[in-house]
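Quick start: load a record and inspect it. Here is Dipeptidase PepE:
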Amino acid sequence: MKKLIIASTSTVHGSGYLEYILPTLSNFFKGIETILFIPYARPGGISYDEYTEIASKAFEKINKKVVGVHQFENPQEGIQKAEAIFTGGGNTFELVNQIYKNNIFSDLKKVVEKGIPYLGTSAGSNICGVTMMNTNDMPIVYPPSFKTLEFIPFNINAHYLDPNPDSTHMGETRETRIKEYHIFNETKVLGLREGSWLEVNGESIVLKGNLSARLFQKDEEPREIENNKEIN
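Running the structure step on this input writes:
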């Protein structure tokens, strides 16, 4: 049975890395000694080792060890033997590119669908959907495919921002961009606000955190999903 936490962000305003969600993660990873970290998204272009160290320091607070998948000579073996997996945020294009390049797509999909606990934040959450096509990131590389892991039957728009009527910014809103996407695509999109996450247990998907989420469907008005509600 699938067991995932799909979070919009790793860091909320005023707190440290993963700090806001550590109580939930302590329970989620109960009985787990070592978490395999996938650092491929490289926020700000930092090295895999630097990124793994950031994750390690956060999980030390709940007595978990972290090892990076890049530390394995064979990344596939690292995925296959993992007790639990965490994919961090950064650039989704590069994350997906490296998942394909290192040939771990199939193994990652297989172990999570069999029940290995999976945590994703930001880019690591984007890859849980049907495709990565609703990421906010710049296309700095060209991955072999936009197809992602399909752990959930819709796409994620992480860090979703509502239109601000008082803003002087004249660029497109997130809602506008998602409507543009739905001209050519059918897949539903969930705008996941900061500090919110999805808890997935088998086929059950429940919104957690203090905020609602915004669900977009082709040719329909977007609707709000309240927290602690199951998404059907």
